[in-house]
Amino acid sequence: MQNTFEVEHRLSYRVLRWVLGVALISGIIISAIQVALDAGRVSRSVDVQASQTIALVRDAATQSVFSIDNELAQQVVDGLFAQEAIRLARITHPDGEPLGNGERPLQRSAFRPITDPIFDAERRYREALSRPGNPDIIYGYLDIHYDTAFAAGTWLERTSVTFASGIASAIILGMALFVVFHLLLTRPLLRIVRSVKQVDPEQPDDRLVALPPGHHTDELGLWVNATNNLLVAIGDTQKQHREAEDRVNRLARYDQLTGLPSRDTFMEMLQKDIHDAGERKSVLALTVCGIDDFKSVNEQCGFRTGDVLLQAVADRLTRKLGSNRFTVSRLGSDQFAIVEKGLRDGYQAADTADQILACVNRPMVIDDQTVTMTATLGVALFPGDASKPDRLLQSAEQTMALAKQHGHNHFQFYVASIDQEIRERKQLEKDLAQALGNHQFHLVYQPQINLETRRIIGAEALIRWEHPEKGLVPPDHFIPISEVNGSIVEIGQWVLDQACWQAARWAEEGMPLRIAVNLSAVQLRQANIVDDILSTLKRHRIPAGRLELEVTETSFMTNLEDAVAKLHRLSKAGISIAVDDFGTGYSSLTYLKRMPVQHLKIDKQFIRDLLVNEEDTRIANTIIDLGRSLNLSVVAEGVETAEQEYYLSQRGCKLAQGYFFSKPLSPHDFETFVAGFHRKLVENNA
Ligand code: C2E
Ligand code: CA
Ligand code: CA
User: Fold this and answer.
1) Distance separating alpha carbons of residues 41 and 151, to the nearest angstrom
2) What is the 636 CA–ligand 3 centroid distance (Å)?
């Protein structure tokens, strides 16, 4: 629609034009008729005037011709000229001889061209003169010529007045109609148009058309009301449409029975989750959970019970996995899909799988009947197993189908090797939980040698796990697991306790050695770790200087302030601190300066290739120099050859430990080793 409505297009103007046109034409026609009638009247009045004049002078004129009195005739003629309209007056004998005569020129007038064709320039009248007693004898004639200009002049005046008033009244009528029309129609209509323009097509009933004041009862009012009713009706239908659309949407997007996202919705969410996981470089696990033997549940208990069971499972899953790390949806009849985001590795997904199994496994009471169900799960991991949502889902579904062939109530990972690894890790975790209680741990001790004095100055306590079936499990294997599940706290405390007990025994036996114990980052993060350590020392009555704690650089990383504070307290108590695996982490000088550290342990990986690999040699040298400049003693670990030992001692490294001197030993073997080592030393010196 046009924004500015041009004035000449308005109805009131068109009305004005029409009314003016019609009024003008009819005014002109009516005026013309009036004028024509008037002209007839004027024409007749000239005749009447002429016959009256003739009647007036008739006797005198007759008398003059009867008595052949020229003087009288001329007097009559002259008398006639008192009338200004008379142009010619003449009294003649029957033979045409004039007795009296007078004439003057036609009045000059600009309107003659108009009026002469209507009235003629002059009107001629001839009266035969006779005596009343003898009308057949004609004595002469009286001729009178009338100039029409005078009558026509008044006629013309009236004519112009008639036309002017006709046109004026036509114009006044037109204008009046225009104003009335504008006020009554155009203006309210324009208001309505403006109001209609403001109607929101999305919500037509939100803002109805405003009714111009004073038009409640007329046609405009009716029209606006009808329009508004229509708008309301349209709004209602739209609302119903929207509601229906929403309903259809919900039906399509969410599963009717459980209220969980349906397959299509799930795929959309998965797509997004995979994208996010890709950006954050985290692992995402997709677990497909199929209820075992759901068909027979349906057959035995009926579909209604089956539905209730599915609802209960859905309910339990959403309740258990409520956080926004998880998405639970229903894929189909008895299948659910669970997405877990933000994982480090697949191992965490195994925990979730266990939780899902437990959820399904809990007995349910329906209609006084206890039903216990199981499920089988297939787990696929992003990015390891697939990078596209449909491929990932396919992998998980296949894995679940495969897992069902091998029994119920368990889970399986898509990649066999990962599945195996995770399974073993899970098993190890379970076994680890029993290990402490079942006394499967023991400590071995690796001597630490002073390279200058060639004396044993201490020992590093290292844990060993004697697994009932697997035999010796290396700490590199189970310590990381115990750090993830937190059991390192308990295990670490046991190690500390055991090492302190051993140190106390050896001190009693005249072998006062310093024992180095590895302290995990998880242990250092414990709030009461300092008190625990100090009370352990007290319990075994050994001086704090007899204990060394080995911490890795990563221990400081997460909460530097906290770690610094704790290590300061330990250090103040007299415990010495060694930085383990130095050179493998950040090895930041800033950290090191703030730490109350006494020892740096060069990691065995640098010692292994010492003198073979230039880079490793340079790192070892740097650490030794760094230790010297910071006044820290450097311990080389993993010394396996005489060459390594020689090089290190020459380079200024004071302490060393490694297979070259001894493997980690049981306490008894350690005692034997110490005795032998010192005997050899005495012999060498002798
Ligand atoms: P670590 O603290 O760096 O311990 C040194 C590891 O090097 C020990 O392995 C030790 O047996 C080994 N080793 C010693 N000399 C040599 C050598 O000459 N050559 C070679 N190739 N290796 C040598 P282990 O006992 O298997 O311990 C591995 C890791 O397990 C330790 O590394 C430590 O991080 C952790 N660990 C061991 N016991 C404990 C413990 O009681 N608590 C904590 N938190 N961690 C422990
Ligand atoms: Ca260590
Ligand atoms: Ca180490």
Assistant:
1) 10
2) 9
